[in-house]
From TrEMBL:
Signal peptide location: none
Name of the protein: Alkylhydroperoxidase family enzyme
Family matches, as InterPro entries: AhpD-like, CMD-like
Domain Carboxymuconolactone decarboxylase-like, first and last residues per copy: 32-98
GO molecular function: peroxiredoxin activity
PANTHER family in the record: 4-CARBOXYMUCONOLACTONE DECARBOXYLASE FAMILY PROTEIN (AFU_ORTHOLOGUE AFUA_6G11590), CARBOXYMUCONOLACTONE DECARBOXYLASE-LIKE DOMAIN-CONTAINING PROTEIN
Source species: Nonomuraea thailandensis
Length: 162
């Protein structure tokens, strides 16, 4: 599909976009003020306090739910860097797959937020047992952010990198 908003040409990129030459950045750079603000949130979530494995499991499950090929492709690579195997990455798509208690909790957070827009009391209690307050907020913001980003990428028809 043809992009609805073409990525900014490389000769117009700022230093950040040159350092991160991905279509998501080059496309959102078309709105400089919004792009700068979004980059801050995105950066905090990408380099936050959550373990990389947890972060990538949450993003992949969200990308799967939202049907975001762009997010899936980008984060499948990041998930491997975070130590997930190719088999585990594919299992994220399967709701019946068996996971450790820790991994299942992260996936359940993404599931609850996608299907209900809220966490069940049981999921919240398990989250409180595993993460401190900042970690709980971060995981919820991470899932919500990537759900929003998936919608933007799909609507703007941002193409995955080759």
């Amino acid at each position: 599909m043809k992009p609805r908003v073409r990525p900014l040409p490389p000769e117009q990129w700022d230093d950040y976009t040159r350092a991160h030459p991905y279509n998501v950045f080059a496309t959102l750079a078309r709105h400089p003020g919004l792009y700068r603000g979004w980059r801050g949130l995105h950066g905090v979530l990408q380099d936050g306090t959550l373990p990389a494995r947890d972060r990538e499991l949450a993003v992949l499950r969200t990308a799967h739910h939202c049907g975001s090929a762009y997010e899936w492709g980008r984060h499948a690579r990041l998930a491997q860097e975070a130590g997930l195997t190719p088999q585990e990455i594919e299992l994220v798509r399967r709701p019946d797959a068996l996971w450790s208690v820790e991994d299942q909790l992260v996936l359940q957070v993404a599931d609850d937020l996608y299907y209900a827009g809220d966490l069940t009391d049981a999921t919240w209690a398990a989250l409180c047992d595993r993460y401190d307050e900042a970690g709980r907020i971060e995981l919820i913001m991470l899932v919500a952010h990537h759900g929003m980003l998936a919608l933007v990428l799909r609507t703007l028809r941002v193409r995955p990198e080759d």
